[in-house]
Amino acid sequence: MINLKYASFSILPLVSAGTWLGKHTHDHRSPCRAALTLLGIGMLLAMFIVWEVQGSPHYVSMESNQSIAYISDIGAQGLQPLFIAGCCVTTIFLDLSFAAERWLRHTGRLARNMGMTEKILSTLSIIFAVAGTFGLILLSIFDTVSHPRLHDGFLLLFIAGYVLSAIFVCAEYQRLGVHFRQHRVLRASFWMKLFFIIIEIIFTAVFVGTSFTTHKSIAAVFEWIIAVVFTFYVLTFFVDLLPASQNHQKTTELEMGHVDQATAAYQNGHTTGGMRTHVGGADGQQPRPPVSQNY
Known about the structure:
Elements: H1 4-7, H2 11-21, H3 31-38, H4 43-53, H5 71-75, H6 80-107, H7 116-141, H8 148-179, H9 184-211, H10 216-241, H11 253-267, E1 270-272, E2 275-277
Antiparallel strand pairs: 1-2
Helix pairs in contact: 2-6, 2-10, 6-7, 6-10, 7-8, 8-9, 9-10
């Protein structure tokens, strides 16, 4: 049975991703546009469509040999209010997703962190996500036309902040996966986030490398790709938060007592009457925490 109270947390990354990739508009004359509206497609797409509809203008912030506009080139023009609002909503709701995930693990709605290391990794992921938030919001405010150096610096802060945040999330999930091997959601989320890290690092390297050459259009293409990949990274948190909505996922205090005992046995081991006590395993097996009801 779905618990609507906790199901609401899974909406946070959907709002973030929908805002980033989508600007909600209504056009009753076009069923196709109505369908796209339901999918939340529009902010980044709207910016690109506006640029195309205007005839792919060559903005003052673009190089003479540049044929494809950067996101920032379009955002620095008449769509800057949309750009700023979209960046603010996207990052704020993503940070709320981070906070919700931390709280749900603390309360037992999701698989609890089994030690201090996981908690530290989770905290570091939130800190770097907040740094990325400031980077994205500030780069939208300090546009590439009036503040090119500040804009580039905040762009670097945005990308580095969220990539480092993703690295710490992956490290946390890898450690959780050791304790909760039966939970496929943790494993799936780990691989999706690891894919994001690898792709973003590769594409960012290409983006930066081509930005300082005459291949500005190639750099612009990779900037758009990086932005779209970021959308799918945000959506991975929907996968993380959704299991908390299941009523049977709630861990009771008694279960958590067993988990705590199992953690101590797993880390230190117990000896009772000269015999090692194994938790959740047969003789000859390494002790490990029992099966939890959480993800």
